[in-house]
Structures are given as structure tokens and as C-alpha cells.
Amino acid sequence: MTVCKFGGSSLADDAQIRKVRAILEADSSRTIAVVSAPGKRNADDEKVTDMLYECNALAQQNRSCRHVFDNIARRYIDIAKGLKLDTVKLAAALDEIRQNIDAGRGTDYAASRGEYLSARIMASYLGWEFIDAAECIVINGDGTVNPLSYERLAGRLEEGGHYVIPGFYGANEQGVVKTFSRGGSDISGAIVARAAGADLYENWTDVSGMYAADPRIVKDAKVIEELTYTQVRELSDVGASVFHEEAIAPVIEKGIAINIRNTNAPEDPGTMIRPSSEKKGIIGVSAKGGYSKLKLRKLMMFKRPGMRHAMLTMLHLYGVRPSFSFFGIDSIVWYFESGQANDSVLKSMVERLKKDFQLDYAYYERDHAMLGIVGGHLDDDTSFITACAALKEAGIRINNVNYGSSNTTTLIGVNDSDAKRAVEVIYKALF
Ligand code: ADP
Ligand code: ASP
Ligand code: MG
User: Fold this and answer.
1) Which of 74-83, 89-98, 246-255, 283-292 has the lowest mean pLDDT?
2) Is the distance from the beta carbon of residue 241 to the nearest atom of ligand 1 less than 6 Å?
3) CATH 3.40.1160.10 location in the chain
4) How far apart are CA 326 and CA 305, in angstroms?
5) Where in the chain is the domain with CATH 3.30.2130.10?
6) Rounded distance, CA 37 to CA 24, Å?
7) In this protein, which residues make up the domain named Aspartate/glutamate/uridylate kinase (predicted)?
8) What's the CATH code, domain 2-276?
9) Residues with Cβ within 6 A of ligand 2?
10) Which one-letter DSSP state was computed for residue 138?
11) Does the beta carbon of 211 lie inside 6 Å of ligand 1?
12) CB-side exposure of 149: number of CA atoms within 13 Å?
């Protein structure tokens, strides 16, 4: 059987939802749908999840969220009317949710309601059974999936049954609603695919697969026909946001294939993601901005066992968790997401690092990006030299390079303001 996850654009309005039904009905092996909250209907539109976060922020300031919530309610009512569904129960559910948000049920509860309502509507439209993710998906304190989820879900799913399950959220072991990080419905889909023993996990979105470069940057980028779990994880980790980088983990052990497909062009084959591939060469390039960079140096640093670990522990105390590391003989560069700490926190952290570890220097810089060139057997491939030459030719400064430590990805640190152009330039040079 096949588990199908539909992203926000596939649920954006009643016309999109009709396409979803046609897709589900076109193949009898598609018996479980995992759904996101309604996304944008056009470039100027708002995602329901963003509006729910806004409602919660208002409630936290003891202000009523009613004016924002009314827009959310209208979206769902319009969808239900468009699908010719009864709106009485829906209106009551919306009212109850607004009151709960106003009463301070918290961020995760508020954010989760987008998926909850989508799944309720979808279940009645299809005549399939609704399963509340809060009853089955257990999320640990650190945001990872608790393996209990697989047992609980499997206990609810009967062979031959048809189900709609909301994505993005579950509950902690105490039963309190908790969400994954943004884009987390991809993770929910993977969890459900594993629990259901699916042969295939279809991830339906608004593009015909994973492209060799972000289609918003490179207009004529080509779709990647096939890639491995590792490649898709590493590409999404550097910004290829079509598939959440944590959504691979649940399906790896069972080797379930993933197919990224386009709800607006269901005839397109999309991208197949499989456990492994012998293919060599470059498959994609992507960049992710919004990083800050911490630079440290101390003579003979690496002669002191435990020092790097102790510094990382200190970083964690300040809320800084590096995503990428580059090591020199006596120096370290750590890239971390800029949102993790404000300037005053970082200034104190740097002072403390300097003092406690007697560093020769320590400082941080904002506005960095990390670019990844992803492929197979890249530790045995010199195309990254071509990429560097193309960047130099385009006058783009390279800040850091990591080649050879992964056979899947070569990392190139560039300034945030150069990131998009760097993707374009490298795509042109390598594809
Ligand atoms: P969904 O709501 O269906 O989960 P997302 O917005 O999360 O969809 O992901 C789809 C979007 O990802 C595309 O519309 C595209 O703009 C963006 N994207 C970024 N990089 C890539 C890439 N390399 N290939 C395809 N899409 C990409
Ligand atoms: N609706 C959530 C978000 O916007 C989760 C998802 O779409 O996957 O992040
Ligand atoms: Mg997504």
C-alpha cells in the first residue's frame, strides 16, 4: 500500500482538494492520506499555519486573536462550502479552537490546528476515517519521534481501511500536543508510512520533484529522476526545502521508497528516492542562508583533549548549536543558525569563551550562507574545482570549503548576499 502526504498548496482551496481526491481515487493502493494545513493560494496569500502562530502571539500578549482568526475561519468555511460539506460542526470546532488559543493553550496547540482541521475536512470529503495524530504520534522533548508512535499507529490501522491523518503534530508522552519543526508534515508522512508497512511513500507538493537547483532561482533547472536517502537529506539540509531533512529517518530502516510528486501535474513521474545508488557525479546544488559564523583560534588547540567538547558545551549553554564545522590546525569555524542567539547573547558568549579558554581570538559574523554540491562518490570527483573557478570568475567570495569529508556533499561557505547567484553560477558551470 501507499501512504500519500499532501503539502499545504495541495490543500489550499476546494479546487486543490478535488485534485487530491482524484489522485487518491486513481490508485487503489493509496489508502492513507497525511495532510498539511492550507498553504498559499497565490504569491500574496498567507499560510494558515503562519496565521495560527500570529493568533498565538496575540494571545500571549493578552490580546484577542479574533480578527486574525476570522480570516482562518473564512478559509476553512470557504473550503467546506466549495466541497459541499456541512459547515455547522466546522463552525463550532473553529469557535472552540479560537477560544482555546485565546485562553493560552500555547504555541504548539495553536499551530497544530491547521492540520487538524484540514484532516477533519478531508476525512469527511473522502468518507475516510480520521485518526488524530495526538493520539498516536509521540514526540520527544527534543522534537524527535518516539518509537512508541509506530506501535500506536499500527494498532489503529486495520488492513483494508482508509484513513486521513493530520501531519506536523503529535503529543508528548503526557499527551500534550506538540509539533515538529516547520515543514514537519513530511516527517509525519514518513512515520505513518513506516507504521503502516507501506511499500511507497508519495509526497505530493507543488513541483514535479526535487530539482537540481531551487526552481525559484534557476528557472530551467531539471528534475532529478532518482536520488538516495542520504542525498535528499543532505540537499534539503542546505536549503532544498521541498522535503524536510528529518523525514528520511523513519523510512530508512524499512527501505521504503519515497516519490515526490506534483498535485498540479499528477502525470509527471517526479523524483524517486531509494536507499542507495551506484551512480557517480553531481546531482544537485542548493544553498541556505541565515547563518552566523563563530571563529576561534588558540595555539596548540587540538593538543588539548576535550577542549573542543568543552567549548561546544559552553555554546549550548548560550543556545548555540552549530550546524557546520570547519577545523584548521589551531582554529575552528562554526556555522550556526542566526536566530539561535541575539547580539547581546553572542557578545557575552564570545567574551566568556575568550576568558575561560584563553583564546587568541574569538569573534562572530552575521549574514553567511552554506552552499552544498550534492552527488555520488564526490570524494572522488573534481567538479567542485570547476565550481570554485566559476565562483571566482563571477567575483563571488568563497569563505570556507569542505571537500572530501562526505562522499555525498561538498560544502562551500559564501556570503548570504551572494548565495542565490552562487547557486545559479554553479548550476550553469556543472549542469
Ligand atoms: P509543501 O507545502 O507541499 O510541503 P514546500 O513549500 O514545503 O511544499 O516545498 C515545495 C517548494 O520547495 C517548491 O515550491 C519550491 O519552491 C521549493 N524548493 C526549494 N528547493 C527546491 C528544489 N531543489 N527542488 C524543488 N523544489 C524546491
Ligand atoms: N503547516 C506546517 C508548516 O507550515 C507543516 C507543514 O506544512 O509541513 O510548517
Ligand atoms: Mg513542505
Assistant:
1) 246-255
2) yes
3) 2-276
4) 18
5) 283-430
6) 18
7) 2-262
8) 3.40.1160.10
9) 7-8, 36-37, 47, 49, 114, 167-168, 182-185
10) B
11) yes
12) 26
pTM of the model: 0.93
- Which ligand is in closest contact with the Cα of 49? 2
Q: What is the pLDDT of residues 35-90, one digit of tens each?
A: 999 999 999 999 999 999 999 999 999 999 999 999 999 999 999 999 999 999 99
The closest ligand to the CA of 182 turns out to be 2
What is the pLDDT at residue 61? 95
H or E segment and range at residue 177: strand 177-179
CATH fold label, 283-430: VC0802-like (3.30.2130)
Band of pLDDT at residue 382, cut at 50, 70 and 90: confident
Question: Which residue's C-alpha comes closest to atom 25 of ligand 1?
Answer: 210
Cα 222 to middle of ligand 3, angstroms: 19
Closest CA to 14 of 104, 65, 100, 76: 76
Sign of the dihedral defined by the CA atoms of residues 205, 210, 216, 219, in that order: negative
- Average pLDDT in the 163-173 region? 98
- DSSP-derived 3-state class of residue 236: helix
Let me know: does 165 contact 192? Beta carbons within 8 Å: yes
Q: Is 169 in the pocket of ligand 1 (CB under 6 A)?
A: no
- Nearest of 187, 138, 267, 178 to residue 7 by alpha carbon: 187
Tell me the CA–centroid distance for residue 92 and ligand 1, in Å.
34
Task: State the closest ligand 1 atom to the C-alpha of 9, by its place in the atom list counted from 1.
Answer: 2
What sections of 329-404 are H helices per DSSP? 343-357, 383-393
| Cell numbers found for residue 127 | 468518507
Ligand nearest to the CA of 206: 1
CA separation for the pair 427, 420 (Å, rounded): 11
146-155, long-range: CB < 8 A, 24+ apart: 146/173, 148/173, 149/191, 149/195, 150/191, 150/194, 150/195, 151/195, 153/191, 153/192, 153/195, 153/196, 154/195, 154/196, 154/197
Find the radius of gyration of the CA atoms of the chain. Answer: 23
